[in-house]
Amino acid sequence: MEKMKHILIKLGLVIFVVVGVTTAVAAADAPRERLLLDAGWKFYLGDHPGWGGQLDKTGGGSGPVRKDFNDLTWRTVNLPHDWAVELPFDAQADRSHGYKVLGPGYATNNIGWYRRKFTLSAADHGKRLWLEFDGVYRDCEVYLNNCPLTHHASGYNGFYCDISDVADYGGQNVLVVRVDASKFEGWFYEGAGIYRHVWLVKTAPLAVVPDGIFVYSTFSNNLPGGEATVHLQAQLHNWQPGAATARVTWQILGPSGKVVAATNASANL
Question: What pTM was estimated for this model as a whole?
């Protein structure tokens, strides 16, 4: 459900928008958290025997996707990580991609596996948990606790995975990412692997969805100049079993950090 508000302010401010949601669950009891998961990954270059399974066969995979897989011999790396930069040069390789031995003709260098373990508190049960990938090059499959989460083909745009229903609360979780960099998207060096940050995001069961804030401005007669109308939009989702009422509060901060405008709206979800 979406609600939109319009505020008239003078043009020329550098603005920052702060959004808060007040619900039946107090914000202090379930604050939004965004935790970095860059450290302590295990990495293996090359494809690995095993099967990731399908959604109708969840839990039936084998190989690196399994929670009990032994990865002690794998390298330990921190993100951002690019395995292509470590590869040697070859005059026969693709010139546009830096003569790196990657892509067509170099099958043994095109697949990489990543695994990372992390624990969750039992108190997280009832929250919505998301994995946020800022960028993976390129075609990747994501698993948690031997359950397939998503398949993402693009090497350039970020994506989210909701892990709430497959997470182990109060225990250890194993995140696995298989990356296939065998195909190119551009005509320049593109790298390979999880080359941007990965985050664990925790929200209340009634919250603004990830990337759910949108702000834009319009002008009279569609001509820039004078005053602008700033449109503030927040997309909410209710994962609770029953209906709920939410109040969204927007604050616009000026360059000095002071509030220059504020408004709110209610929504039934």
Answer: 0.84
